[in-house]
Design goal:
two-stranded antiparallel sheet, mainly alpha, 437 residues
Length: 437
């Protein structure tokens, strides 16, 4: 990536400035900081105090923190699970790994600022919120670079970057639930897409170990997101480029072996934690929760009033118009993108709780926003004529506004976190003044 200041790079920093202002206003004042680390985010984060403060991977400090010092009946969440007869963290440790520098900063500053260095006082929460902003920045920087590889114009990249943040549920999961894993996954998948594009553009095998490392971190954050590996055909752009990339990798086995070993070594961090805390490397921390691949909820996860991706965040749907543009230039890319989308949708919708509990839209797609934004950028770039291009930009703007309205409704419970129906949806559509009783 060149050092030249461009409109799209300026857009990235404008976005981060705006997001920081919104975050500070909503989260950093009064007692609002207490809601930064919540729900699943408590489980993701718990590895840090467990290792660096309490030296207890079996979470013996849980009762004191959750039931005494910081008890809140509305925010209480038990993220513990059973593993080989031991108490363990239900979640994987990748999010904690990404948060580590920010946690250590909070831990160093807390006693100097008069806060308890217990892992849960004010600064720890604030720094996790800042971590989310940092990884949003990282994701946008690499997404911008990816779009540059498709020769997208500067103003088009700016439109797409603003849409990616403010027109999708990435906004919500950066501002209101920053301790969740999604913005962290968004960053690393953006990096993975960038590195994979670089490999297929240059065929330099030095990118393979880097891809192994990034994929390993993606796995540690959310194991299912290792499906990003299947994005490689689309990253290649053509069957010939894919074949040459595979031939190059197989023809120089040392970088390929290094990449595999780095991936396995990174992924093994979780299994080493299990070994230390339970005596076994392999633990199923989710118990009865799992995938039912015979009964996927594909239509529900995409279109339902309960949690439909395309209903609550329709910019994802608009991005699919990029497939039409690709069809004219690279049918291989259309098949590769469509196959990848069908794969992740099938897997995501096969989870026992296909709507993923309390969430805005289908939150499991947030990490794959770069995949959708590539299509949106291609559609914007290839749309001929000022009038049609203007219509497309207008649609992007309108759907971004709609997303912000629905995000606001979700925040104030006009859109319920799990009980929406057709009747409830249309009762409050575009309304911000009427709460669902």
């Amino acid at each position: 990536m060149k050092d030249k200041i461009t409109p799209s790079r300026i857009s990235v920093f404008v976005i981060i400035f705006l997001m920081t202002c919104v975050t500070a206003n909503l989260n950093w004042g009064k007692d609002h900081w207490k809601e930064i680390i919540l729900s699943d985010g408590k489980g993701y984060y718990a590895y840090l105090p467990a290792i660096f403060i309490y030296h207890d991977l079996n979470l013996g400090f849980f009762d004191k923190i959750e039931k005494q010092d910081y008890y809140n009946k509305f925010l209480y969440y038990d993220y513990r699970a059973n593993g080989n007869g031991k108490v363990i963290d239900k979640y994987f440790c990748g999010t904690a790994l990404a948060e580590l520098p920010f946690f250590l900063t909070a831990h160093a500053l807390s006693p100097l600022s008069g806060y308890r260095p217990d892992g849960y006082s004010n600064l720890y929460h604030i720094l996790i919120s800042i971590a989310a902003l940092f990884y949003l920045l990282a994701g946008l920087v690499f997404l911008n670079a990816v779009l540059g590889g498709y020769n997208i114009r500067e103003w088009e990249k700016s439109v797409v970057l603003f849409a990616a943040v403010f027109g999708t549920n990435l906004f919500y999961y950066t501002v209101r639930e920053p301790s969740m894993s999604h913005v962290f996954s968004f960053a690393f998948i953006s990096i993975f897409v960038y590195c994979s594009r670089k490999f297929f553009a240059t065929f330099k095998t030095g990118w393979i170990p880097v891809l192994g490392l990034v994929l390993g971190v993606i796995f540690l954050i959310r194991p299912v997101n290792a499906l990003a590996l299947f994005f490689l055909p689309f990253a290649a752009g053509s069957a010939a480029t894919l074949r040459k990339g595979l031939t190059t990798a197989l023809g120089r086995p040392l970088p390929l072996i290094a990449g595999i070993l780095i991936f396995l070594g990174t992924a093994s961090v979780q299994f080493m934690i299990y070994k230390i805390s339970t005596g076994k490397f392999l633990i199923d921390s989710y118990g009865d929760e799992g995938f039912n691949f015979l009964h996927p909820h594909i239509a529900d996860i995409l279109f339902s009033y309960k949690k439909g991706l395309f209903l609550y965040t329709p910019l994802y749907l608009l991005s699919l118009t990029g497939l039409y543009s690709l069809w004219k230039s690279s049918r291989f890319s259309v098949y590769a993108w469509s196959g990848f989308f069908i794969l992740i949708t099938y897997v995501f919708s096969s989870w026992w709780n296909w709507y993923y509990g309390g969430s805005f839209s289908s939150r499991v797609y947030v990490e794959f926003i770069p995949v959708f934004m590539i299509l949106l950028a291609i559609a914007l770039h290839d749309t001929a004529g000022k009038f049609r291009k203007g219509i497309l930009v207008a649609l992007v703007v309108l759907l971004t506004i709609l997303c912000q309205i629905q995000t606001y409704q979700y925040r104030y419970y006009q859109i319920h976190w799990s009980e929406m129906t057709k009747e409830k949806y249309w009762e409050v559509f575009l309304r911000i003044d009427k709460l669902i009783k």
